[in-house]
Amino acid sequence: MGPATSEASVSAEQLVGDWDALRELEDEWRSVAQARGNAFLTPEWLYAWRRHYGDKAEPAVVEARDRHRGSIGWMPMTL
Fold first, then answer.
1. Cα 28 to Cα 32: distance, rounded to the nearest angstrom
2. Up-side HSE of residue 24: CA atoms within 13 Å toward CB?
3. Distance CA 62, CA 17 (A)
4. CA–CA separation, 77 and 50 (whole Å)
5. Cβ neighbours around 42 below 10 Å, total
6. Per DSSP, what are the bridge partners of residue 14?
């Protein structure tokens, strides 16, 4: 993956820390992960991890958007 161009540069970031809020964003999130070809970035991966290992974990998912407010990346993590 090469350097980001000005068109794809991040202009906004958001930390999503609520499971219900993630559910509202998962279609867009899934679309970006599929375009990147990385199953580890999908909502399904995070939900499966939560079911097996993190039932008490709080989400800490970083969402990045371009200057047109289009979603360009997600980084699923938990606390």
1. 6
2. 7
3. 9
4. 10
5. 20
6. 63
**Cα 70 to Cα 77: distance, rounded to the nearest angstrom:** 21
CA–CA dist 37, 29 (Å, integer) = 12
CA distance 13 to 61: 10
Tell me, what's the pLDDT at 22? Answer: 92
Angstrom CA distances, 55 to 8, 49, 52, stand at 35, 9, 7
Query: Per-residue pLDDT for 55 more than 70?
Result: yes
Query: Greater confidence, 49 or 68?
Result: 49
5 and 47 Cβ atoms separated by less than 8 Å: no
| Each residue's pLDDT tens digit, 7-46 | 557 777 889 999 999 999 999 999 999 998 989 889 999 9
